[in-house]
Specification:
Layout: E1 5-11, E2 14-22, E3 47-48, E4 53-54, E5 62-67, E6 70-74, H1 76-79, E7 88-95, E8 105-113, H2 118-131, E9 134-141, E10 144-153, E11 156-162, H3 184-197, H4 209-223, H5 241-255
Parallel strand pairs: 1-7
Antiparallel strand pairs: 1-2, 2-8, 3-4, 5-6, 7-9, 8-11, 9-10, 10-11
Length: about 260
């Protein structure tokens, strides 16, 4: 697997060179959208409805909508991430994991020590195990600054990005019951039922049953030869270079 980037875990004056890898692989079933008549995959094109023309990448800029229908345009230089330590995972503090509510947890990444950094990596891992602490970290990934937690998973230092506080929707708009009178007998029965459901958590006990059933249907259809093949797109024949230039020019004129 290719590393997403190489950088350092920084803690005070300590710097541990590492490589960062994705820890998650989604197993979703993906579907293509096809034309019902001929089973050809649908293409989505960049089109300006005002000018009624198709656009190339160089014709497109980024804009922020500050009011309905009003945009401020930003250049690539202006939106380039300004944070300096783009290759550092900076440890800000150490806390107890129980202080971090699971609602804030986002994506996970593995950290591998670079050659020569194994001892420092092992030392940090040992101290974190001994103190049962996780690190609150700050890092940059895909042109965005993240906060996260540095923790240990299967003896591997792992960074898990967190949502910021303003990214979590508060449930104030929900109609949640507050003071409801409950009978003691109801509580006792509910507690007894809960005890019957109590056990150890093992992620291997669970599987995506929906995905398994859909894959059964897909395999069954393949075995039954219910397969539709999209027709090959005919390549327009070009007699010579001059002909190619003329045709290209005609297309450009029609697009204007």
């Amino acid at each position: 697997m290719k590393a997403l980037w190489s950088g350092n875990i920084t803690f005070g004056l300590v710097s541990i060179p590492i490589k960062l890898y994705g820890a998650i692989h989604r197993s979703d079933i993906s579907f293509h959208l096809l034309h019902k008549k001929c089973s050809t995959p649908i293409h989505y094109e960049k089109h300006c409805p005002t000018c009624n023309i198709h656009l190339e990448n160089e014709d497109i800029v980024r804009g922020y909508e500050y009011e309905k229908g009003k945009f401020v345009i930003l250049t690539e230089d202006e939106i380039e991430f300004p944070y300096k330590d783009v290759k550092n995972i900076e440890i800000l503090k150490f806390v107890d994991l129980k202080e971090i509510d699971p609602v804030y947890l986002e994506k996970s990444y593995y950290l591998q020590p670079a050659e020569g950094a194994e001892r420092a990596y092992a030392l940090l891992r040992t101290v974190m195990k001994k103190t049962a602490k996780v690190g609150v970290v700050r890092f940059v990934l895909r042109e965005r600054q993240h906060i996260g937690i540095l923790r240990i998973f299967n003896d591997t230092l792992t960074v898990q990005s967190l949502f910021y506080a303003d990214e979590i929707i508060k449930p104030d708009f929900l109609n949640i019951p507050e003071r409801i009178h409950l009978d003691e007998k109801e509580i006792e029965l509910a507690e007894e039922l809960l005890r019957h459901y109590t056990g150890k958590f093992n992620i291997n006990d669970y599987r995506d049953e929906y995905r398994e059933e859909v894959m059964k249907i897909i395999k069954s259809k393949i075995a039954g030869k219910e397969i539709k093949i999209a027709p090959k797109k005919e390549v327009e024949k070009v007699v010579d270079l001059m002909d190619a230039l003329k045709k290209s020019l005609e297309r450009k004129k029609k697009a204007v």
